[in-house]
Amino acid sequence: MFAVGKYDAPANDRLYQRLARRLFKELVAGTYAIGDRLPAERELAIDYGASRPAVREALIALEVQGFIEVRVGSGAYVCRLPGQGEEPGFAITAFELTEARIMFEGEAAALAAVQITDAEIDLLDGLVEAMTTENLLTEVTEIADRDFHMAIAKATRNSGVVRTIEDLWHLRSTSPECALLHAKARNAKVRPVVAEHAAIVDALRARDAAAARSAMRAHLTSVMDHLLFQTEEMAMEQARLALATTRQRYGGVPTN
Known about the structure:
Blueprint: H1 15-29, H2 41-48, H3 52-64, E1 68-71, E2 75-78, H4 94-113, H5 118-134, H6 143-154, H7 159-174, H8 176-187, H9 194-205, H10 209-249
Antiparallel strand pairs: 1-2
């Protein structure tokens, strides 16, 4: 149990911020030295009574600030210890950004459903096809994905909605914590799910505001699930490859 002190969480802190502060306090207290490996996400989740996504957000927050490095297939390692008077800082996370997108883009889709033209529907159909093509490329790209969401925003005929959704997309690359997780996702080959985007277009084509809202919210709710699952899968695959290499080097039975 930690004593109350300068690093305790403000009342309005989110769960991941409270977890990050607890880990930060352990670094300050000397619980870990530079080069030490932190407990695995699963262990931290059990110890702190939190979900693994919340633990991952906390680790990302500390990684962005240079305190730890999360190595694929190996774990999180301490890179540096807090300096005198240093305190943990937080930027908007990918989880927070996705929550905001669910709120704004869900309503934008509902508004677009009663405003959208046949030409704009055709544009969205073309962007879904472009996503299918982009998903076949070796390098992960999100050009068609961004254009798709911005096309729906523009179909609302509301400049405030367009500006808000532009800003949310801008945060994906400018918020350090968002950028870090999305970079990890790109390395794990996470790609836009075409079927989810097609379902949004179908609802818009039917001019069904409720269905459009539901389809957009369902899509964005699944975004973080895809990110978390795929980055975990990449870590597991890297660990399997490392184990296979070690066994071969030392004469063990190769793994399949």
